[in-house]
Amino acid sequence: MKKLKITFNAPVTLTFVFLALAALVAGTLSGGMITQLLFMTWHSSMLNPLTWLRFFTHVLGHAGWEHYVGNMSYILLLGPMLEEKYGSDKILEVIGITALITGLINYIFFPASALCGASGVVFAFILLTSFTNFHQGEIPLTFILVAVVFIGQQVAEGILVADNVSQLTHIIGGLVGAAAGYALSGRR
């Protein structure tokens, strides 16, 4: 009988999940101070180097275990397939671009709101996944349906539900994923 071994099959996905877990533990142990300092965007001076760092690291911070598990479930489900299809370097770029754009938009347009969590990355992955069977000159119906349902839900929730969830971050993440899917699929 052949021996089974555990493989580190999706390095960017797994590293992201473990870094987010470390951020959650550090934030929990510090009573939220580390999360606020390093893993949450908020309106601070642009001269502060941590402001620029947080534009990228806020996707690693989470408000609690339930928030973390919800996001990481999708990341673990979609990330390995996307890494296999597009490569680890491209998935890292999608995460970085999503983090930067959502962080900057939150900073510019919502100066009174803090932002943390990987929801933007999750929605980028969801829309990017719908491009996995993309062929030149075609638009997958799955992409259209996912985009309509996803954007419709986020717009409706943004208007009708008063919560601490940034639907705009979800929409921006989805747009980054759609743009990345189109760009990456168009190169084939």
Description:
The structure is a single chain. This protein has helices at 11-29, 33-38, 49-57, 65-86, 88-109, 119-129, 141-160, 167-186. It is built from eight helices and no strands. α6 (119-129) packs parallel to α8 and α7 packs antiparallel against α8 (167-186). With 188 residues, it is mainly alpha-helical.
Summarize the structure.
The chain has a single domain (11-186), classed as Up-down Bundle (Rhomboid-like fold). Helices cover 69% and strands 0% of the residues.
Work out the radius of gyration.
Answer: 17 Å
Give the total of beta strands.
0
Low-confidence stretches: none
The tally of helices reads 8
Shape assignment: globular
The top level CATH class name = Mainly Alpha
Query: Roughly what is the average pLDDT, rounded to an integer?
Result: 87
Name given to the CATH homologous superfamily: Rhomboid-like
How many separate domains?
A: 1
Measure the end-to-end span.
40 Å
Helix content: 55-70%
Helix- and strand-based class?
mainly alpha
Bin the strand percentage: under 5%
CATH architecture label name:
Up-down Bundle
Assign the CATH topology. Answer: Rhomboid-like fold
Element pattern in H and E:
HHHHHHHH
Main sheet characteristics: none
